[in-house]
């Protein structure tokens, strides 16, 4: 058995049975070995950023890692931005990065680069397999390391892949998440009992779990603490029957206002909030001066159990306030971000997975879907745009029986537009609503926010996607995804209803002000 | 004056007056400053790999660096593959990578990553500007460092960009390329005088220069040495009136055969050849055992002067054998890689810049264009696919009065297909012949070459671009580039003639066997 065969068998044995792949010459034995191990599903992408973003979306929904297959340093580089998002969201990923054969490494061939350094910037675990006898054990360790919410990267020399003498390794035991000490829970309960203004700031595992959200709602009901979620959770369960949960706003003035007066900020699964960027004359964080930050649970700990324990201690008899089932009415007339959000809120199917890279076009989206049937919401955790379409691929592979709705800004879509092809090839049930405003609208805002004084044409040209306008219907159909264009709320509703009713991928170009 | 304004003025003063940009929030003051410094041309790309590949192509043709404007670690990551190609080809590039404001850096905001480590993997020069008072001097040093054939990366904190107190810096003197010692030239002349089989192996500056090629031809005529070029030169001058110059073949068996029996391998501007990849049972380099490798000039040295001196010493009276003007006849019938190459050879315009990422579809292309009118040829130096379309952007920006012909493989095209939009927006005179064979054909070859024994369906699916087939006419028109489809040699000739006759970008989908 060669190294590649043992590696794939080990991955499958450890529960990693999907591989998002962009192979090259150094990965050909891995590719060949897919025919020996049918339990591993190989999913081809046309660009590495699609593979890594898909692995991120897969992990968020499956709760376990997929593998990626990447080609040396440049291939890993192409996948780096979405690995950054996965790292920021704590999504487990196992990267297999092919490298030159051991004998070839020192020859400084054209594709040679410092792949170790590139990998080190995103990986919590990193190893180069140096012999076919070791590669399976290395792979088992990679999966175990990833399971703790990390990116694990295995550098695989081509000859370790092709040489015989390998054998599969058993999976390593996965340790459950550490429990929060009861003294921590008691201290937080004491702070909440003070009656001083408090915010329970939720993220990570807590917002991904109905149990976590219901326990948090109980704490809020019993103590008067406000509930708030981190701005970009990796996965958030939402909808009727759950507590109402505002997310911390993105713009610093709104974030500052939303936490003003808070005396106790209790973190559960989230880290303390900081603004996405620094701005002139603005503090770096929305946490008020004098506010005490309490860590109930840190990312990676069992936050759901911690919040449950807090509820039992601080609010044993309280009943959480829950959202009633409610949908907006279907709007009519001009398509705007808000009427687009209303259409989505009116039609969002049960058990949908919403992939949200709407950016500025997403105004109103959270509000107008909050009472919809139960669904999951995946946000852009690390701010590296181009995560949405790939995440939709991964979510759909992880959950083939659930509809995926990608709400996707136009500028960001172009970073990884190749994801549409994989959606078509794999027949994934992804409906993309493409928010087509013809500009990097978020940067037009930011140009003003950072105090840059320019209304000049030359600056404007760098933020404008017109001249020529992008035809997303042509781009989607050119990659095999059926596509339509909506310029009114009625058209969007009709097209969204039709797309959701039919299996497989669809794209709806939602033409918004700015483009019209 | 703020840091961004001083930075841009310094760049322009040092001759860097084009910036291929993908800005984000942290670069908004740089963008605003473009309105203050009209001499800097900002060129928007929709993906960072387009920006960096364009800077590579620009540098190869302009002989000086362009700037890129990238957004933190993920933006640099997206540009890494084409920076790898630029580094491998010795193309100068000045990266300006925006980063968090100094006060924001320690807060570990969502977009924080180890951008220094990412930059270090490709940069010959790397610095973080720590104050507005320093940024202009840092920029001047970056340009000087790049001028020596390196990638220079300036990390620019947002507040260094927006704060006042900066002033432009004067350009630093650029030192000319070092001269090769006459003792080295004499030693090489002595080796050639032995009469033993010798190869003059040319690359870098030597093949980019008519003078270098003519001097090399004189050496060959006078000493009997064979001429050969490196497999993937950054820039090669070609056509009638120059010496005939075979490139070292890519496949190891052909490379080994082409150098078999060589006793003296003289490097001029090139490094000693190694195979792109290691293969089972194959040596890592085509240089025969016992062959002496002589370094006449290393990359970065003045190779043209060295070859000129060698010609004067070793072959003072010899006349180089030069290619006669010759074009293939226009073929008819089925479109194949060879008939496609013949059409290109028949119609290649004078002073064209050919960007070659044809890969397996490029068989016959070099041969059938060798007697065409004088042209430049840009190859994929570092093996990171997806360089072609972006390089075409950069070459066209550098040489607006010359036609650019991109011969582009389909699978590779999809890595940076967004380049077409920038070609349309800037009205660049780029004609793309898209080699549409519906597969990663090079990997189908490589699967066999590496001895991987698989003819299985699952492996094949990872090398096949069908299901759904990519519609490059739709993709191009969706980004504003007029496009047509050719299925016969006659159609290709008609469409190529029309595209070349009309300014601005065009794409011709050349449907090859495999796709039909």
UniProtKB/TrEMBL annotation, chains A, B:
A family per Pfam: TPP_enzyme_N
PANTHER family found in the cross-reference section: ACETOLACTATE SYNTHASE LARGE SUBUNIT ILVX-RELATED, THIAMINE PYROPHOSPHATE ENZYMES
Name of the protein this chain belongs to: Acetolactate synthase large subunit
Signal sequence interval, chain numbering: none
Lineage of the organism: Bacteria, Bacillati, Actinomycetota, Actinomycetes, Geodermatophilales
Single GO term (MF): thiamine pyrophosphate binding
Domain Thiamine pyrophosphate enzyme TPP-binding: start-end pairs: 373-509
Domain Thiamine pyrophosphate enzyme N-terminal TPP-binding residues, every copy: 1-106
Keywords, ordered alphabetically: Thiamine pyrophosphate
Entries under SUPFAM superfamilies matching the protein: Thiamin diphosphate-binding fold (THDP-binding)
The organism of origin for this protein: Geodermatophilus sabuli
Source organism, top-level taxon: Bacteria
Stated family: Belongs to the TPP enzyme family.
NCBIfam families noted in UniProt: PRK07586.1 (NF005760)
């Amino acid at each position: 058995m060669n190294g590649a065969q043992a590696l794939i068998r080990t991955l499958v044995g450890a529960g990693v049975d999907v591989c998002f792949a962009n192979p090259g010459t150094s990965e050909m034995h891995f590719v060949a070995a897919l025919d020996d191990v049918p339990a591993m599903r190989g999913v081809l992408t046309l660009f590495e950023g699609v593979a890594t973003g898909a692995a991120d979306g897969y992990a968020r929904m499956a709760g376990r890692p997929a593998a990626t297959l990447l080609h040396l340093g440049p291939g890993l580089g192409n996948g780096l931005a979405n690995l950054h998002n996965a790292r920021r969201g704590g999504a487990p990923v196992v990267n297999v990065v092919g490298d030159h054969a051991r004998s070839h490494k020192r020859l400084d061939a054209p594709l040679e680069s410092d792949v170790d350094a590139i990998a080190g910037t995103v990986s919590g675990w990193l190893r180069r397999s140096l012999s076919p006898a070791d590669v399976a054990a290395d792979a088992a360790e990679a999966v175990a390391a990833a399971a703790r919410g990390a990116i694990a990267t295995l550098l695989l020399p081509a000859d370790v892949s092709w040489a015989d003498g390998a054998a599969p390794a058993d999976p390593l035991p996965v340790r459950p998440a550490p429990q929060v000490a009861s003294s921590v829970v008691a201290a937080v309960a004491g702070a909440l009992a003070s009656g001083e203004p408090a915010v329970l700031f939720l993220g990570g595992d807590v917002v991904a779990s109905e149990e976590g959200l219901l326990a948090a709602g109980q704490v809020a009901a019993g103590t008067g603490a406000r509930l708030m979620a981190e701005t970009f959770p990796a996965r958030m369960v939402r909808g009727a029957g759950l507590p109402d949960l505002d997310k911390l706003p993105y713009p610093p003035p709104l974030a500052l206002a939303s936490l003003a007066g808070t005396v106790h900020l209790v973190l559960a699964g989230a880290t303390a909030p900081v603004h996405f960027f620094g701005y002139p004359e603005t503090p770096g964080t929305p946490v008020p001066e004098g506010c005490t930050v309490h860590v109930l649970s840190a990312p990676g700990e069992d936050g759901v159990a911690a919040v449950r324990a807090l509820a039992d201690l601080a609010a044993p008899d309280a009943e959480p306030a829950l959202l009633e089932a409610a949908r907006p009415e279907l709007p009519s007339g001009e398509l705007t971000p808000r009427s687009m959000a209303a259409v989505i809120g009116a039609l969002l199917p049960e058990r949908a997975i919403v992939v949200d890279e709407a950016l500025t076009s997403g105004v109103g989206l959270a509000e107008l879907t909050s009472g919809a049937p139960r669904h999951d919401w995946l946000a852009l955790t690390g701010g590296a745009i181009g995560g949405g379409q790939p995440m939709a691929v991964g979510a759909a592979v992880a959950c083939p029986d659930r509809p995926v709705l990608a709400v996707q800004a136009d500028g960001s879509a172009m970073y990884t537009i190749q994801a549409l092809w994989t959606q078509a090839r794999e027949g994934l049930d992804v409906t993309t609503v493409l928010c087509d405003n013809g500009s990097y609208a978020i940067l037009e805002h930011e140009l003003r926010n950072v105090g840059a004084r320019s209304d000049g044409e030359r600056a404007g040209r760098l933020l404008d996607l017109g001249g020529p306008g992008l035809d997303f219907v042509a781009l989607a159909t050119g990659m095999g995804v059926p596509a339509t264009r909506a310029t009114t709320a009625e058209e969007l509703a009709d097209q969204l209803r039709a797309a959701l009713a039919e299996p497989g991928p669809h794209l709806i170009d939602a033409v918004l002000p700015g483009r019209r």
